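Help! Submission page says 'invalid entity' but I think these are all valid:
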Amino acid sequence: MPPNSYLHCSTSLGTDIISFSQVFKRYPGGYEALKDVSFTIEPGEMVFITGHSGAGKSTLLKLIAAIERVTSGTVLVAGQNVSSIRRPAIPFLRRNLGLVFQDQKLLYDRSAIDNVMLPLVVTGHPWRDAARRARAALDKVGLLERERANPIALSGGEQQRLCIARAVVNRPNILIADEPTASLDADYADAIIDMFRSFNQVGVTVLISTHDDRPIRKLNPRVLSLHRGSMA
Amino acid sequence: MRAWLRHHALSFAQTMRRFAANPFASLLNALVIGVALALPLGGYVLLANLQQFARGLAADPQISVFLAPEASKSDIAELDRRLRGTPGVTKVQFVGREQALAGLKRAPGMAELVASLRDNPLPDAFVATLDASEPELAVRLEQEIKSFPRVAHVQADSAWVQRVGSLLRFGRTAVVLMATLLSFALVAVTFNTIRLQILTQRDEIEVSKLIGATNAYIRRPFFYLGALQGIFGGLAACGIVALSIFVLNRDLAGFGTLYGADTNLELLGLMDGLAVLALAAALGWLGTFLSVSKHLYKIEPR
């Protein structure tokens, strides 16, 4: 699929690729993580979500991938209403998203390339094709020579890059990263942010949460700022 | 469709690798299931043999009618006619006292005993074969024939056949009960194996859900694991029963030559064996289904 073909399929559904409207999220026990959050993101945008820890950044990203459900309000992703999505449809939603987690969620019982291949194996790609695409993804994040290594043997920065390779291997339209630079020193963090920028430059919509304002000063991107669950 | 088949092949290979990775634990699990299945299976095989044996002994119940020593030729003819006229009697055979003695002489170890007798102590007798369709007939006719003139003694030979019959029925019920109870054991063993496997693969399940694996995809390897474990258990059960029959036959061989009877125990047939494996696989599948329904859905990414 060419990198910006989503433009054609999303035109009939409006121009937004992600849209939140009056979203509230209350966790069991009464804690209000998000209060009346509304915004829209257009295809091909690169957006940063900032705020202190506990401001609701992770919750917001989890709502997009249906890892959490809204208490009220509407979340649309590529024209699909995620706030009312049925359970059997969730896997197919997630196949169009590339997710990068703060804690990486890598599997340590297999090699780096097997981790990257997982999204393709799950969707039933032929083995050889999956391996070829996984190598291409590893090459993009500069880990090709470590393909046989166990993730546990990789440094923190390398693990984060491996997680990015896994997120982009099935060429998603949307890339979502939750604090991808949180535990990295400045040089590593810059390299990671550059990587997201290069994906954005080929048309992928990128949404990154961070409490680190260095990349924002450097890139001057669009920023959504959260403060105690509300848009600031 | 091809992707689906590919994943089935992948699940199967993965399951075999998982067995190979923990050979000792897998072997123990198969043995536990094997022993649980071997008990009712062994009972079934023994029963089948016993049934065969009982059928060979007496197809139809018989009544032996012994005459009083003073019975004359006309008494015998009269009794023959009355027996033949009795409803339920299908065949009447006269065994004269000389004939009975000759028969006794032929029996192993009896010739010397017979030779030592001064005169023939045996009475004349009739053997009446009865209609087998009415089990209570022998008991009723035994009473009736006792009242005939010149009849000294009546013995229903069918009594012990009936006893064997009811014993076999009892055995069958016991085997069915045992099989039912131990099927639960098999389901429980599978349930726990799968639960442990789900817990070990917790991370993998969570990550798979995050990258878009469907529930059917995540479940599939576990079903293979449960069903294959059942089949391995079934194979173990067949092996245990075959070995037991082999050992028992060696002991029975001596017993058989002593009584001049064929006491060889038959092993279960191919179809029975396949049925056992199919049942074991089905029970493994059921245990997996219960375990997966209970445990897999609790693992949701946070």
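Support: the input was valid. A stray whitespace character was the problem, and the output above is from the cleaned input. Chain B touches chain A at residues 2-4, 6-7, 10, 203-204, 206-215, 217, 300-302 (CB under 8 Å).
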